[in-house]
Structures are given as C-alpha cells and as structure tokens.
Amino acid sequence: MSTIGILAALQEEIATLLTAMGPDVVTRRIGQRVYHEGQLSGRRCVLVLARIGKVAAAATAVTLIREFGVTVVVFTGLAGAVADHVRVGDVVVAQTLLQHDLDARPLFPRYEVPLLGRSYFDADAQLATLLAQCANDYLGSDYAEEIVSATRDAFGVADPKVHSGTIISGDCFVCDTSAVGLLRSALPDALCVEMEGAAVAQICYEYGVPCGVLRTISDRADSTADIDFNTFLAQVARFYSAGILRRFLMNYSSQGR
Ligand code: ADE
Hints:
Keywords: Amino-acid biosynthesis, Hydrolase, Methionine biosynthesis. By secondary structure, the chain is of the alpha/beta class.
C-alpha cells in the first residue's frame, strides 16, 4: 500500500492534521526538518513542515521520496490570486505548475528548466481530480460553515469556489499590484501564485512520483497581500487543509491505490 507524503510551508497549515495523527507518531529529524510518520484516515502518511520557498520544498520532497519511500506527494498551503475570477477563500487544485522566476535566457527559453527541456510540470491527473472533488465536498459541507463565515467576516467574501488549472511558483511573496499584473499578462493561464508547488512538481517528475498541489487563496497578491495573508493564516487556513485532506485520504484509501 502506498505511503503519502504531505508537505506544507507553514505550521498553521499542518497543525490540525498533526493533531489528528494522534499519539502513535514517530518523528525523525533530517536536515532541519521534522518528519512525522503515522496514520491519517487509516492511511500511512509522513507529514512535514517544508518551510517557505522552492529550495526548502524541493529538499524536503527529495527526503520524503528517498528516506521515507513515499509513493505519493501532496503539498497543501496558501496562495495569492492571479486570475481575476479567483477570490480569497477559493481553492485551487493544480493541473500543471511552472516556476515564474526561472529565466536562463538566452541559453534556454524563459521559464524552461535547463536540461529538462520543459517549463510545465503536471500534477497527477487522478490526484488532481480527487483533490478537486474533496475540496468541493468540503466547501459544500456543514463543517465548512465556520470557515465560510470567518472568510466572510474578515474579507467580505462568501460562496467559495474550487478551480483547477495552472499554479505558478517563485521565490518571492508577490505583494504589489503591478507585479501581479505583470504575472497575469506574461502567464494568462495562471490561477494563483505561491512559493513551492512547481519545485515539488519538478522533483516528483524527476523521481516519477505522482504529485498533487492544493492551495487556498489567502490574498490577491496586491499591496495588502501581507496583511490578508496573515489574517487568513491565523483565522482560516488550518480548517481548509485538514477538512479537504481528510476527505482525500479516506477516498484515496477506498480506491485501493
Ligand atoms: N502565498 C500566499 N500568498 C502569496 C503571495 N501573494 N505571493 C506568493 N506566495 C503566496
């Protein structure tokens, strides 16, 4: 049976899942990361705080694959909206991911990962479909009421939606209306921006491990993004990851994969 590696960039994003693992967790410290091995929804999982940025996420993903033998990798966390129709409180599931800050021109085309000959790294299609279904289920459930009302109170936004498509990643927190505008015009298919997903997707591609990336929108990557991000992180984020991933793990198990 497969072992699922679950990564997040921030403690708040894994806190509820960690509690749900219960007391029988084995922890191992490798390269300044603490890996928690245990069961979630009856499925063997390794849960780890990857920290922020592409290098941190890539190094952690390699350790999950090489040291723990995970056969599936899922990254969960927050993102800033890029597309106009994506709003705070929505969920984005990656179908494909790109590093928006990778630029080795004129040696290689913009965004292309040198010597891999590609810019986009696809998430596993089955994982993406299941994550989107679980996000829809969760947002339609009674459990989501508290996050929907917290998001409404803090951001004036209700009726969260689930989107599937392109996620872009780079080593900068996008917090500027013109910067996010540039991303939107250079990469019109981008739904949201974050700092890790495409790096994890590249590692998973190189190791042949299926990858899923799930992001909740905390801000609009504009001049108030830092304030919105911190409010969202403190008040709402933890419920989303746990609510969606618990459903995902139950359904993933029942498919016998
Ligand atoms: N994660 C959440 N919001 C973000 C933003 N605005 N830029 C980069 N990563 C993010």
